[in-house]
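Lab meeting prep.
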Amino acid sequence: MGFPILSSLILLPLLGAIFIFFSKSKSNAHLTSKYLALFVSFSNFILSLYLWHLFDPSIAEFQFLEEQSWIKGFVNYKVGIDGISILFIILTAFIAPLCIVSVNSTVKYRLKDFLVAILVMESLMIGVFCSLDLVIFYLFFEGGLIPMFLIIGIWGGERRVYSAFKFFLYTLLGSVLMLVAIISIYWITGSTDITYLYNLGIDAKYQYLLWLAFFSSFAVKTPMWPVHTWLPDAHVEAPTAGSVLLAAILLKMAGYGFIRFSVGLFPIASEYFIPLIYILSLIAIIYTSLVALMQEDMKKLIAYSSVAHMGFVTLGIFTFTQQGLEGSIFQMISHGLVSAALFLSVGVVYERMHTRLISNYGGLVSIMPKYAIVLMVFTLGAVGLPGTSGFIGEFLILIGAFKKSFLVAAIASIGVILSAAYMLWLYKRVVFGEIKKDEIKKMPDLNRAEIFILSLLVLPIIFFGFYPEPLLSTTEISIENLIEMYNTNINLNLVEK
C-alpha cells in the first residue's frame, strides 16, 4: 500500500493542532476551534477504522511498514503495526473526540490552547503504538509528558502545580534509565530497529540490567505499587478530559511497553523476574483496592481502582500464556473505555455541584434517572460483571494465572471481590439513599451532549462483553508469534547453559 496511513494517523492531529494554534482570534474563535478539533479527531478515528479494515489478522509480521532515514547511520523513522498495537491506536482515536466534545462545560478559559494540547497528545500517543525504532518510541513516549503536564498545570484544580510537577518528575525520572538502556542496546547491537533486534536476540548477559532499566519507566507509568502515588494526585487535579486521556490511554502505553519490549526484547530476563512482577501486581490488586474502599473523593477512588486493574494487566502479561496475554490486552482496551466513562460521569455531577465528595451526594436516582442508568452500566463494567467488557479481560487473565500458579490466581481473585465492594458501595452512596442537600434537587438530568458521549461508551462496553471476537481475533496470531519467540529464546538459553 503506497499511502502512508500510519504517518497520516500520527500527523493529522498534529497538523490540526498547529492550524488551531496559529488561527486568528475572532468573536466565535472558541466555537470554531472546537469544531475544527472535533473534525480532525473524528477524521482520525474514521481513518483508524479504515486501517483496521485493511489489516490482515492472519499475518504475524508487522504490516503497513514505513521507513525513512532520520539521523543517518543511527536512527530511522520506522513505523508499523501488528495485532497488538492496532487496537490501542483505535482506542486512542476513539477517546480523543469524546474528550473534545466534553470540554464545553469543563474548560472555562483558554479553550483553544486546551484543544491544541489534546490533539498533540493524540499524535504522540498514536506514535507510541506505531513506533518500530527504540529512539522514535522514546521520543513519542516521553513527548506525551509535556501536553499532559500543561493540561494538569494550567487547567487543573487548586493543587494543580504540585500535581503537575509530581506527575512530570515521577514519570521523567523513571524514563532516564530507559534512555541509557536504549543507548546501551545501540552500543551492543549497532541498531535500534525493533524488528531487527527481535530477529537478532540480545545476549542473555545484558538482558537483566536492560530489563530493569525499561522496567523503571514502565512501572511508574503503569503505575505499579509502590510508584503509583502520583496517579491519584494527577487525576484529582486534572480537568475531566485530562483524567480521561490519562486513564484511558497514557497508562496503556506502559502496558504496551511491557509486551513489546520487556517480553519481546528481554525474554530471558522476563522469565527471571516473574516473581517480582507477581508480587508487585498482587500488592497493587489487593492494597490499592483496600485503599479505594477508604476514599471519600470519587476521582481518587476511580484512580486507585485503575492501579488495581492495571495490576491484573501486568499479572496477565507475565503469565506468558495465550489467555493471559489476550486477557491483558482486552483488559487494557476495556479499562480504557470504562475508566473514561467513569471520569466523564464524575465530571457530569461535578459541573452541577462543584464537589467530588461522595458524602455530599445521595438520592440521584430520583433526580437524574438517566444518569443513574448509565452510571450503573459503567460501574458493572468496572466490577467485571458477565455481559460487560470488564469480565472478558479479567476472566482470561485469571485462567492464564491459574495455569502458572494456583496461589497467585487465588490471591488475584480476591481483587475481583474487592472491586465489587468499592464500586457498588460508591454507586449506593451516590445514587441511592436520601437526598442530603437542597442543591441536588435542582440538578438537571443528562443533556443531549452528555447522553451522546456516554452512550458511545455504553455501546462498546456491552457489545464487547457479549461478543469479544473482533478484538480477540485481531490479537490472536500476533500473541501466538510473541509466545513462540519467547519460548524459543528460553529453550535456547537452557540449551546453552
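Slide two material, second protein:
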Amino acid sequence: MENEAIAATPTADQTPWYAVRLFFTRYKAVSEWLKTQEMEFFVPMHYVDVEKNGRVKHILKPVVSNLVFIKKTRPQKTISSLLDEAPFRMRVITKSRENRQWSEISAAEMREFQTMCNPEIELRKYLSESEAKMKVGAPVLVKYGPLKGLSGKLVRSNKKYYLLKEVSGLGVMLKVSRWCCVPMEG
C-alpha cells in the first residue's frame, strides 16, 4: 500500500510545521493566498456526502474549516509578518495561554499525521485537540499491516482499537488491530 511506504520511509526534510487558526471559514481563499506567498501548507480533508438537486455527491471538504498547517520554510519573524499582512485574520497556535511561543510540529510527526489524514482511508475519526488529550492509551508503534511504521497512542473507542495521532489543534484516529502494535520504548 502507498501509505505504508510513506510512513516507513525516512526523508531528509526535517523542516517543522505550524498549526494556524483561521478566524473565518474560507479555506479556499487562504489556500490561494498561501500559494501566492509560496508557502507550503496542508489542509486535512475528508469526503462528505452532499445532496444537491436530488442527487448525492461525494465531495472533498476540510475536516476543520478554520485550521491550516504551514511549513516553516522561512524564519519565524518573516512568517509572522506575512500572517500579519494577510488579507484575513489568522493566528499561529501557541504552546499554551501562558507560553506564547509558537507550537512547532516536527517533520516526522507531520508526515505521519498527513498519512493518517489521507481521505481514501476509511474507519477514521477526527477529534478536537482537547478530546484527543483526554483519550487514555499507551504509546505504540505499528509493526505490521498497512499502517506499518506509524506511531501514536493505542486507544479504545466503541469496542474497537484505534491509533491516535495528536498535533496542535487536531487529533486523528485510525482503526488498527492491537495485535499489529508493539509498545514504544520510552
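Talking points for slide two:
Residues 27-36 form the longest helix (10 residues).
The chain has a mean pLDDT of 86.
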